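Bug #2210: token dump truncated for Small ribosomal subunit protein uS15?
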Amino acid sequence: MLKSKDKKKIVAEHRIHEKDTGSAEVQVALLTKRIDELTSHLKEHPKDNHSRRGLLGMVSKRKKFLKYVQKKNQANYEKLIKKLGLRK
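Reproduced locally. Full output below:
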């Protein structure tokens, strides 16, 4: 679970304008953080299938957001995946 302080920091790093809290870029960054946390949880608890299902849903949602960003603005997409350390 993301803490409020961490979430505000991620939003501040990835926002497009001053009041941006829900753009696709911000959503991808937040999902990436949650995916990283859940992945480390699943390494400790490999039989936690309920969390694994949630992880797969988050990965799918992030993939859809990334496809949208790529279609909308290729330069932002390239910058975002480089900043987050994601593969194409």
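Output looks complete on our side. The mean pLDDT is 95. Marking as cannot-reproduce; reopen if the truncation happens again.
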